Amino acid sequence: MTTAFVDIDTQIDFLYPAGALYVPGAEALLPALIRLNTYAAAHGIPVLSTTDAHGENDPEFRTWPPHCVAGTAGQQKPVQTLLERRVVVPSTPGDCDIDSAAQIILEKQQLDLFTNPNLTAVLERLNADRYVVYGVVTEYCVRCAVMGLLRTGKQVELVTDAIRALNEEDARRTFEEFGALGGKLTTVAEATAG
What we know:
Elements: E1 3-8, H1 12-15, H2 30-42, E2 47-52, E3 86-89, E4 103-108, H3 119-126, E5 130-136, H4 138-150, E6 155-164, H5 168-180, E7 184-186, H6 188-191
Parallel strand pairs: 1-2, 1-5, 2-4, 3-4, 5-6, 6-7
């Protein structure tokens, strides 16, 4: 079975208390994020990492406070979660060479990673049978990722101790819907076993 890890929006603006749109408690995820990405690199598992890359007057800022503006420190991923061989896939249509990358950083301007027009081609090249998903925020961008990946017909696992929510009740509903659609809950220890 071919596996891909999917690291959702683990960016400074979300993970740290000084971040523009801090998710309470998210800084505690850092050891889990490092463990997952390091494990993937050591075992030849590609990591698809999404990042918000907003413009200064992005339409999303009508709903959310400004965050992850492209080129700012808050838009960056913590250096410990970055893999050496990485490539950035912009949200403008184009051909992306991901073949030698251990980490594919997919930019987006909306909650749903499937709004990046290059994602379909990236998923086809990865040709994974199984997706292991983690990051922030459970009931928003992580939810969009797992629901979209389930629609591909592949096995999707959500790493429950490597995600954070803003609202625990909404997160619980996400877990229930995910499970009802065939998704599987897992842990960092299980995802990195073997």
